[in-house]
Amino acid sequence: MRILHTSDWHLGQHFMGKSREPEHQAFIRWLLKTVDENSVDAIIIAGDIFDTGTPPSYARTLYNRFIVDLQKTCCQQLIIVGGNHDSVATLNESRDLLACLNTHVIGGVTENPQDQIVVLKNHQGEPGAVVCAIPFIRPRDVLESQAGDSDTDKQQALQNAIARHYQEVFKLASDKHLPTIATGHLTTVGGQMTESVRDIYIGTLSAFPASAFPPADYIALGHLHRAQKVSDQAHIRYSGSPIPLSFDETSCRKQVVLVDLESGAAPDITELEVPTFRCLKSLKGNLDTIQDALEKIDDECPLTTWLELEVSTDDYLTDLQKPIQIMLEERNLEVLRVRRKREINRAALRSESKETLDELDVSEVFARRLGDEDIDEQRAATLSQAFNEILATLDEPEEDRNTSEPEDEKESMV
Q: Do the bridges between strand 218-222 and strand 228-230 make them parallel or antiparallel, or are there none, so unpaired?
């Protein structure tokens, strides 16, 4: 049977104040057409279907409409697992209703592991594969914190607990004697990240080793937005996000993955490139260099091209917007961010001192402040990890934060 693996749609994302709705609409139209063209039997979305735990109404509409429209195609089986951006409660609120449309939603780890087993049927209506539908795993789902444990002990205990959960669910799936697929939403050791991916700090575990996954025929992962194999193993993959979610993803080829499964054989894996619906481009240099680069941009994308500019200049300009706007006249281009290149010289220092917070993101502000302190590398790394943990909790839905482990069980990082 044939599976389509995708992830990290991030419906409802606002990118520097801009809605991604037109891009998501275009992607969904393309996906529905692709499903029919490739005779797909089932789709797996490996987490982060939404960008926040409380998605805007248009994002919920896109989600529901996609599920309904999928029933009009040759593919009428859909599995959705929760990611770190998703709210378990939000996903589960329509779970029973969507089950009537052959959609299996696993928002979070379930009390009964059997509930994370989904048997998929092939185009002949017979059982063709079994899925270990494992969502983003929060520490409290699999582990009780023990007072007095060292960082190393905590990391090993959590890694072992996650591995045990995978093995437990996989054992139930193996009893079906069908090709097996496991899902996951986490960072693996060696995974290539982009600036739109915030590190998941699962307790003290920042990355899960590929060797700890069960021997499934295919492992469909989400969370990293750059499509990639894990540890050079073709059957363990991140599909990546279908649209670029940050400027440093512009060089990444966006794709979905087709997986053909047959008992007793290695999976046949095909990468399908997703068209570019909106171009994101990052240009660097002085104003003359940037103007030359702008003139070479072809307005080939159906949607307005979004730009990030890093301008280097010997003279401090109080207003970079005016000359840039002149360059953009009568072009299907829009600048979302302008930054001045920081030089180690007096002119650059004066420019940097007059930078506004609008030109920096929150991580850059923290990194600048941390760089002003005379502290060793180990303490700087510890503070950076603590800061990233705080940022991660801001993305976590409120109901999930309210049930997190008590503060006295967390190590003081500052």
A: unpaired
Q: Which residues pair with 222 in a beta bridge?
A: 185
Q: Hey, how many other C-beta atoms are within 10 angstroms of the C-beta on 51? A: 22
Q: Answer whether 318's CB lies under 8 Å from 346's CB.
A: no
| Contact of 200 with 223, CB cutoff 8 Å | yes
Q: Under a CB-based contact definition with an 8 Å cutoff, are residues 107 and 91 in contact?
A: yes
Place of tokens 């109080």: 318
Alpha-carbon gap, residue 193 to 226, rounded angstroms: 7
> What are the helix (H) ranges across 212-310?
287-295
Q: What is the mean pLDDT of residues 145-151?
A: 69
Contact call for residues 226 and 236 (beta carbons, < 8 A): no
Instruction: Return the number of other C-beta atoms located less than 10 Å from residue 109's C-beta.
Output: 21
Tell me phi and psi for residue 75, to 5 degrees.
-105, 115
Burial classification of residue 104, based on how many CB atoms lie within 10 Å of its CB (0-12 exposed, 13-18 middle, 19 or more buried): buried
In sequence order, the β-bridge partners of residue 238 are 221, 228
**Closest C-alpha among 256, 311, 247 to residue 282:** 247
pLDDT tens track for 306-349: 999 988 865 555 567 788 888 888 788 899 988 877 554 444 44
Q: Which residues contact 68 (CB under 8 A, 6 or more apart)?
A: 101
Pick from 115, 137, 139: nearest CA to 213: 137
Burial of 406 (0-12, 13-18, 19+ CB in 10 A): exposed
- Whole-number Å distance between alpha carbons of 94 and 355: 46
Cα separation, 240 vs 307, in Å, equals: 22
Do the Cβ atoms of 36 and 73 come closer than 8 Å? Answer: yes
For the chain, which domains are there?
A: 2-273 (3.60.21.10), 280-395 (3.30.160.720)
- H or E stretch at 283: strand 280-285
Residue type, 230: V
Sign of CA dihedral 84, 88, 89, 94: positive
For the four alpha carbons of 102, 66, 52 and 307, in that order, the dihedral sign comes to: positive
DSSP state of 319: -
For the segment 49-102, what is each residue's pLDDT rounded down to a tens digit? Answer: 999 999 999 999 999 999 999 999 999 899 999 999 999 999 999 999 999 999
